[in-house]
Amino acid sequence: MMFSNASDGRLAARAGAAGIVLGALAVGAVALVRLHRHPGGDGRPELTELAPDPGALRYRHAVLPSADATAGTADAIAALETRVQDLASPFDYAELAELYLRRAQSDGDPGDYRTAEARARRSLELLATPNPAVLTLAKLADARHDFRAAIDLARQHKARSASAQIIIATAHLALGELADAAGAADTALAIRPDAAAYLMRALVLQAQGRDAEAALDFARAARVEEPGDLPAAARLRALWGRFLLRRGELAGAARALDEALRVVPGFALATAYRGELALRTGHPDDAAHLFEQAFIASRQVRYLIDQARARALAGDAAAADALRGQVETVVRGELGEGGLGHRLDLVEVLVDRGRPSELPEAIALARQEVARRGSFEARFQLARALARAGARDEASREVQAALATGAREAQLYELAALLATQRGDTAAAALYARLADRLDPGDSGWRKLGLGQPR
Fold first, then answer.
1. CA pair distance 38, 415, nearest whole angstrom
2. DSSP code at position 84
3. Is pLDDT above 80 for 236?
4. Cβ–Cβ under 8 Å, residues 388 and 453
5. pLDDT(425) > 90
6. Percent of the chain, pLDDT > 90?
7. What is the pLDDT of residue 453?
8. Do the Cβ atoms of 436 and 410 come closer than 8 Å?
């Protein structure tokens, strides 16, 4: 996901050549083949290097009821609020800011996001530096997709801090700047080789297509966990499950997600990836229900987008359109107010809906996002919009740019196969289709959603 504006044109031009395209395909095919055994008795490939060790997946510390953890956060906030009324301490305000942010990330309450920012700023008014409240502001900037601001704020924290480096790595990863993300993740590990740092490096390695190394770091993260932070333990396993799910290791993904939900019952992220697993295995109604549960728990519109796709795959176009309308209303409102709405969410809805009159806006929004960050996600959504609008050559260039990041995703390969078929390149189309099938064994049709012609 690493691109500079100056290199975009050169990369796109190179990727347009047939030799480069087939070379990229061959590299991807070799990398994937190395992760598979020869087919077993049922003819299906079985993943080897990525299959997780059940002992590593298992959270080895005590698990308290989630209600206790929620109540504990509320009690801590109440106690600190009382204390700062009596004595305005910058450190208490900084801790309050972090607690409000954690609660907001859990339940999606916009009020908690605003309060977290207010408490962090109050802390910094009382003590400019050294003060960890600046890291809370950096995390808030990241949540708003203001990734450059997140990096700048994290760098203002002068202390040698693994947490600051993880924020920097997260922002660079979202921007598609993988070398910088890797450097920050390595620095975080050098400062403090804990679960958060190993997880961060695993996510960077995953984005680079270095799957075997990513699998090792997911396991390392689980093995060095300290007791007490159950949401972090559940998040680790949810993200590990997503990694396995999107590499075709469905049994391992199910185990990881089940363990995340054992640690924190109802955990929204794990519930949503359980929904994706149901969608990929041909159970769209179950998937829609799980995405709905994830949305209720977190208020993240991401899960409504996925619920709409599940409804579409189940054949309920009216329900899918209603959900997309709901997302559009929410995201447009948040974008207008400078809230947590994200352009790419709106792009996805407009492209999924596929109305010809809406595709120019989707393309314009996606181009704005790619100008800000050359990540796989941004380029893939722009490619989808261009493909649906019939701009196949430009869509192909964006697909090749996305592939050049190291991204290996079944939907990306599916779109690449479709575009290759449309330009009459049957050899490339067949190779892309095989790559998609290896990552998504037994395709249920989900990866083709939003790739059809406008309606």
1. 27
2. H
3. yes
4. yes
5. yes
6. 77
7. 55
8. yes
Q: What share of the chain is helix, strand, coil (3-state, %, to 5)?
A: 75, 0, 25
Cβ partners under 8 Å of residue 98, min gap 6? 116, 132, 136
Band the pLDDT of 31: cuts 50, 70, 90. Answer: very low
Alpha helices in 87-132 (DSSP H): 90-107, 110-126
Reduce the DSSP state of residue 99 to 3 states and report it: helix
Mean pLDDT of 397-421: 95
Supply 299's token pair.
Answer: 């208020």
Pick from 247, 275, 279: nearest CA to 261: 275
Candidate from 10-19, 115-124, 320-329, 359-368 with smallest mean pLDDT: 10-19
C-alpha to C-alpha distances, 280 to 276, 318, 334, nearest whole angstrom: 6, 22, 31
Three-state secondary-structure class, residue 60? coil
Structure tokens belonging to residue 445: 């049709």
Alpha helices in 127-161 (DSSP H): 133-143, 147-156
DSSP class per residue in 337-381: HTSS--HHHHHHHHHHHT-GGGHHHHHHHHHHHHHH---HHHHHH
Closest by CA to 42, choosing from 414, 440, 442, 410, is: 442
CA 221-223-224 angle, 5° bins: 70
Q: 42 pLDDT band (50/70/90 cuts)? A: very low
